[in-house]
Amino acid sequence: MTWALVFEQLLNGLQYGVMLFLMAAGLTLVLGIMNMVNLAHGSLYMVGAYLAVAFTGWTGNYVAGVALALLGTLLVGMAIEVVTLRALYNRDHLDQVLATFGLILFFNELISMIWGRGAQYAALPAWLQGHIELFTGSRYPIYRVAILIVGLLTAVLLWYVVTRTRLGMLVRAGASNRTMVAALGVNIKLLYTVVFGLGAALAGLAGLMAGPIYAVQPGMGELILIQVFVVIVIGGIGSVRGALVGAIVVGVVDTMGRAFLKPLLASVISPPAAEAAGPALASMLIYLLMAVVLAVRPAGLFSARG
Amino acid sequence: MITRRILLWIMFVLVLVALPPLATALGQTYYIDLVRRVLILSIAAISLNLILGYGGLVSFGHAAYLGIGAYSVGIMAFYGAASGWLQWPLAVAASALVALAIGAVSIRTSGIYFIMITLAFTQMLYYLGISLAEFGGDDGMRLKARSQFSGLVDLGDPVAFYYLALLLMLLSVFLVYRIVNSRFGMALRAAKSNDPRTRAIGFSPYPYRLAAFVIAGAMCGLAGALYANHTNYITPGLMSWQQSGDLMFMVILGGMASTAGPVIGTFALLLVEEVLKGWTEYWQVVLGPLLVLSVIFFKRGLAGMFYKPDA
Amino acid sequence: MLEVRGLTKQFGALRASDGIDFDVAEGETHAVIGPNGAGKTTFIGQLAGNLRPDSGTVRFAGADITAFPAPRRARLGLARSFQITSVYPDFSVLQNVALAIQAHAGHSFRFWRDARSDPALIEPAKKILNDLGLAERSQVLAGNLAHGEQRQLEVAIALATAPRLLLLDEPMAGMGIEESRRMIALLASLKRRHTIILVEHDMDAVFRLADRISVLVYGRLIASGTPEKIRANEEVRRAYLGMEA
């Protein structure tokens, strides 16, 4: 366990955190503004990944593939919103959970029908392959650095839109009082569709970036979705800032835990015991963290409500 | 007093009792296994109905207790303790304990937080199950030996096992019925109906909700123990969020906060799944939209068709 | 019976309760009036246990209840009715009251005996409904009652916990003339047997029922005394425009 290794895992954690943030930002906005639980958010992540694979293969060009995938995910998201979610806005959370659960089944199976149940290979263009050299002397994949950069840029862009533009102001106003916003003549339906579309695009972006690193397969969305929930619970519903903090924390804790808990334990207790307990504990780490945060702050760290 | 409702129940039970001899005579013993699975999962749905339907706690992690019950049986059998007298109470106790721990933390929250937290904790248990390589990890493990009940019931006999499942299902229905109409149940239902009002008359909802959560977890643990014996195989998938979602649908489809609801809902969902599976390998692509439509249009649940749902 | 000292609650820059001193003697009916926005809701919330004051104390029958949550205060004998009707809409009228009786009877960790037919709960509930004139509606679902009947049910539920102090938050809210008259008669009959804090806008009711009146304006108690004194008070008249003499 060298410092170079630690730093490398830290970077991995940040990169994973950034992807969690992209998912969490969209979801927390939808939760906070539209008071809507959307489990199908993970499906949009999956759609983004698959569309990127498909369009890159079809056009032969990575950038075109990515752009088309983003557009496609946006359209799918808006379709979901119009066809299904509109009927659920005034329903209680239980109904929303169940209905979007049905959507997950549908999308997972649809993807399986088209692409099969196995994992897809997501290729990277030559200019994103390869490594750079870190100050620690070890090599780090360019692609992961690219993810970090894109993620942080998106965070900045989001911050700008939410705090400095008229749209952002409407979004924030809608979060605290949507009836009033509607009464002021703002087209609430359009606002909702835009917000949802934005969330969908973010999820799609996360998905297509995840493709080359993690597996592109049916059900990939749900695995990350539950961690996104943990992020939102820790960060507080409706808060983009909370989503960022929560995502970084969860990403780093999870990645570092998986990498270092077993060796750390092995130095304290017997190696065979650490072999068994290490991975088990590591996978439980972020949930235990969530429980601790909840014990102290039941509404999350930066809750936008109350 | 024989009401219409009691008559329907009697008919229902008679049909279920008659099923094994009928199926055997027709050479269709497959249905004994099928309905037995439905009966076992009904117990899980009945337990979830207690906290979801009557208590208003949207627990998206109830499948955790199916897993804990099943693994308790499996792990004990693995180490040679095959006595059902030992295993099943342990399964129930383990589930109750975990429910106590999870409930104590989760029930302090409400709304969306509660949903996400229960989901997260169950996922944690799921990952724990996967990481226990000794017990099969991701692939799960075979049940080394069925639970032994000193010759009283032979779980290896499909028909005997069927009747045991039926008996336990009916007992669960009766137990939950008594609970929700007792003082405890009334307080729980009051807290669901109007939380501020309930506090204003002097009830603090937390202890009631927590107790209900533990009871439901324990009952679901029993279902898990049964399920392990039914499938002879125990996988972490029993604790997956998909399984939790299925359980919730069983409760909703039948009609929440009704005695027969979870049973009807389990039958409905599992039978629809059977039919769809017969049509196509990709049956979930049909089931998904069906579920969405049922939520959007079919709010009251199927039990509402038979009688007006109350307790 | 109730002693409030220096009650203060601030929401950001807004002082909803500003150092309120307030007393209620046993057996008296003490009305609290004030224009909209005066902070009556915040005041009630702190008395009932839904809001924690930033500073100050609330003493009930000698005990300091400032930190007690609502259920605990209710168990000590402080019952309230809500301004916006808050009953159990999917339970019958009888069940609504029976629930309150049950709450008062001690802990409810009994899992077997059917509570719907328990005479220890049903008989007292029936009696209260009789007293309030709701006996004929006992099997109706509370959500299906007329507005005035629901307001009566609110009072019935509060009474069912055998309270030492009744905190009534605008019991007249939304009532027509006939219903108001009935409610005033009902409250008048309660006067002799209960200590009541009555928060109301309906001046007719206030002046007919109150032994003492306190006036809340912008979070401060600006006057407190007998109805005649309050009627004549200049500051009250100025603050509370449109007050009928």
Net shape of chain C: globular
CATH topology of the largest domain in chain C: Rossmann fold
| Structural class by sheet pairing and helices of chain A | mainly alpha
Instruction: Give the largest interface.
Output: A-B, 44 and 42 residues
- Describe the main β-sheet of chain C briefly: 6 strands, mixed
Radius of gyration of chain C: 18 Å
Short summary:
The complex is a heterotrimer of chains A (306), B (311) and C (245). Chain A contains eleven helices and two strands, in the order ααααββααααααα.
Structure commentary:
The complex is a heterotrimer of chains A (306), B (311) and C (245). In chain A, 75% of the residues lie in helices and 2% in strands. With 306 residues, chain A is mainly alpha-helical. In chain A, helix 2 packs across helix 9 (220-235), helix 5 (142-164) packs across helix 6 and helix 9 crosses helix 10 (240-268). The longest helix of chain A has 32 residues, at 3-34. The termini of chain A are far apart. The model of chain A has no long low-confidence stretch (mean pLDDT 86). Chain C has 2 domains: 1-77 and 165-245, Rossmann fold (3-Layer(aba) Sandwich); 84-162, no CATH class. In chain C, helix 3 crosses helix 4 (119-132), helix 3 (93-104) packs parallel to helix 5 (147-160) and helix 4 (119-132) packs across helix 5.
Name its key features:
heterotrimer; B: 311 residues; mainly alpha; two-stranded antiparallel sheet; 13 helices; 73% helix; globular; C: 245 residues; alpha/beta; Rossmann fold; 2 domains; six-stranded mixed sheet; four-stranded antiparallel sheet; 10 strands; 37% helix; 24% strand
